[in-house]
Automatic annotation (TrEMBL):
Residues 6-75 form the Large ribosomal subunit protein uL11 C-terminal domain. Keywords: Ribonucleoprotein, Ribosomal protein. GO terms for molecular function: large ribosomal subunit rRNA binding; structural constituent of ribosome. This is 60S ribosomal protein L12.
Amino acid sequence: ATVTIKPTATSLLIKELKEPLRDRKKTKDIKHNGNLTIEQVLGVAKKMRATSMAKEFKGTVKEVLGTCRAIGCSVGGRSPQEWQNDIDTGDFVPEEPSD
């Protein structure tokens, strides 16, 4: 049996923020107050699609936005919560990746 390790949404988002590695033993509860573009979030959602529980791609995007909120980063200068509301109201419709 082969074991494969899939990265979590959190680790992918922190990589996208391009923050330096920190010793988690010394600094607890690190807030990542960087800013991602919506394209970066969509890229992470595309990578997470296979492991997501959501039926549609927009659900996966909302999961990733929730992770953004949990680690404390903003998306396109706005809070992840605002993006989630835009998806709910239909103001923003993430495109399903074609591959």
